[in-house]
Design a protein that fits this description.
single chain, mainly alpha, Leucine-rich Repeat Variant, 2 domains, two-stranded antiparallel sheet, 16 helices, 59% helix
Length: 286
């Protein structure tokens, strides 16, 4: 028993050192009114409502582009296997209350900070594209681009070229979000952090008929990659509660099934057969 405890404490100690090392090596933090950027990000965690975040966002905007390297580091950060083990261990013990949240304490708040900066965060587009195309982390990159706003649409269109279907359908969904609700892209909720029980901001965004309609419209986008991603994405909305609005895609999908691009034709035909087999048969889709 004591041996296992010593091993667990050793792992915890090493993980803490690793965590402190990461903090020491990441980009220097700007500050505003005597408070570091991470402190302002933590204010988002404690806000408790989107209507209570404006003063925090004002502080982020005051720090401006100086905050971008730090925000990007939070969004891109991944955890080593040792750190993953550490977080599992500290969840199981109740003797020591650690001062930090656990995994990703400032990732979602960094994305919310990008929303506050808007198009001023455009210098991050190339690196956010790389994150957006990583099958293991693409949602973080794509949510970051969504947060920045309509200026990110060309970057999301590049992500639609990805060979991974999840990546490209996620990207086209974000384009649809920006086209349907450009001024109100996402909201948030708050949960309790698993390590210390503190409140923690979580990104949420609506998925409704307006977003599905926006994806359907992208079947007519000028970029073949976006049309293909749109056809793939519509295939995710063929069942209730989206099936009726998805029916509006039948005629555009028939047209797309005859697209000049072979990959668009393949994706459109596959989705059309799932959405309306009779219409697909009449259109000669095999």
């Amino acid at each position: 028993m004591r041996k296992r405890l010593r091993i667990a404490l050793a792992i915890v100690g090493v993980a803490i050192l690793g965590w402190l090392g990461w903090k020491a090596l990441r980009s220097p933090e700007p500050s505003y009114q005597g408070r570091r950027l991470s402190e302002w990000l933590d204010e988002y965690n404690h806000a408790g409502g989107m209507d209570k975040t404006e003063s925090i966002s004002e502080a982020i905007r005051a720090m401006g582009t100086n905050s971008l390297p730090f925000l990007l580091a939070n969004i891109k950060h991944t955890y080593s296997p040792l750190e993953q083990t550490f977080f599992k261990l500290v969840r199981k013990q109740h003797l020591v209350k650690l001062p930090f949240y656990g995994k990703d304490p400032y990732r979602t708040t960094s994305i919310l900070a990008l929303s506050a900066l808007g198009s001023k965060a455009a210098p991050l587009f190339p690196e956010l594209l790389q994150v957006s195309e990583d099958p293991g982390n693409y949602m973080w990159g794509q949510c970051s681009l969504l947060a920045i706003g309509p200026a990110a649409i060309p970057t999301l269109a590049k992500a639609c070229q990805n060979t991974n279907e999840d990546v490209r359908t996620g990207a086209v969904f974000m384009i649809g979000m920006l086209n349907s609700r450009p001024s109100s892209r996402f909201g948030g909720g708050w949960s309790k952090a698993p390590v210390n029980g503190r409140p923690m901001f979580e990104i949420m965004y609506p998925v409704g008929n307006d977003q599905v309609r926006a994806i359907v419209k992208l079947l007519e986008a000028p970029e073949a990659a976006v049309r293909r991603a749109s056809a793939d994405a519509i295939g995710h909305y063929t069942k209730p509660p989206y099936d009726q609005v998805a029916k509006s895609a039948v005629e555009p999908l028939i047209k797309a099934a005859n697209d000049a691009d072979p990959e668009v034709r393949l994706s459109a035909g596959r989705t059309l057969k799932a959405l309306d087999p009779i219409a697909a048969a009449k259109a000669g889709v095999k």
